Amino acid sequence: MSLYEFLKLVHVVAVIIWVGGAFMLGIFYERAQRAKDEETVLGLTNIADFVGKAVFNPAGIITLVAGIWMVIENDAIEFSDAWISLGFLGVALGAGLGMAFYPKLTRRVRDGIAADGLLGNETLSALRTFRLVSSVEWVFLIIVVWSMVVKPGA
């Protein structure tokens, strides 16, 4: 196995953990909300905080580092390639949302449950926001994964 192949493996595994984990967390939130399971939604906010810091952030960093290293290792790939730029946008979006947006949103959900319960306006508003933003993020990340596989323009 060449260094490039090893980096590609690391890159792909990190993306699977990051994107797949975020997708599953969204499914768990949706299921718990539909079941009106306040305790599970509250527990998921704690899990999301932990997983974000302990799993998604490191996976995002590994994705970025392995991706940059692959570009450096492979003369046929340039940082100016459109699909590479799209990859950087995906990492930036994920990192920005993961570090700045989602922690505040989980806090809103916890505060809303404490104040009004799961069906209170604040909680439902926060969960709707989560659903909308995470859905848009998920679609964008799928586009990024598509561009990494297809490499348009390469």
Which runs of at least 5 residues are low in confidence (pLDDT < 50)?
none
Mean pLDDT: 93
Tell me the major beta sheet: none
Total helices: the number is: 4
Kindly state the number of beta strands. Answer: 0
The percentage of residues in β strands lies in under 5%
Computed Rg: 18 Å
Q: How much helix is in the residues?
A: over 70%
- The ordered string of helix (H) and strand (E) elements is HHHH
Question: Terminal Cα separation, in Å?
Answer: 24 Å
Shape: elongated
Q: Structural class of the helices, strands and pairings?
A: mainly alpha
Protein described:
Helices cover 86% and strands 0% of the residues. It contains four helices and no strands. The longest helix is centred in the middle third of the chain and has 36 residues, at 38-73. The two termini are 24 Å apart.
Concise synopsis of the structure shown:
By secondary structure, this protein is mainly alpha-helical.
